[in-house]
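Researcher: Sequence recovery benchmark, item below. Answer with residues only.
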């Protein structure tokens, strides 16, 4: 969100709160199907819709690539906290 969508930290936090409230509210009642297969705990379709809504709100196509090759692209990388703690 920070890099590709060029959102501020405040905008990212607000978008994540909205996204998480949509995606993580409905759990499947039964963790397995009648045939014994494990079900996903949350809806992947709702996650996809929520992400598409965030992308659309930034006036990008829902199928836009995550890699921004434009000259004014924001250069960011992701590092996990545990990687920092190992140093």
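Model:
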């Amino acid at each position: 969100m920070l890099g590709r969508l060029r959102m501020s930290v405040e905008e990212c936090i607000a978008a994540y709160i909205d996204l998480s409230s949509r995606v993580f509210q409905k759990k499947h009642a039964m963790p397995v199907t009648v045939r014994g297969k494990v079900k996903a705990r949350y809806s992947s379709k709702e996650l996809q819709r929520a992400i598409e809504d965030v992308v659309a709100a930034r006036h990008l196509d829902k199928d836009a690539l995550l890699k921004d090759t434009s000259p004014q692209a924001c250069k960011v990388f992701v590092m996990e906290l545990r990687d920092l703690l190992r140093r």
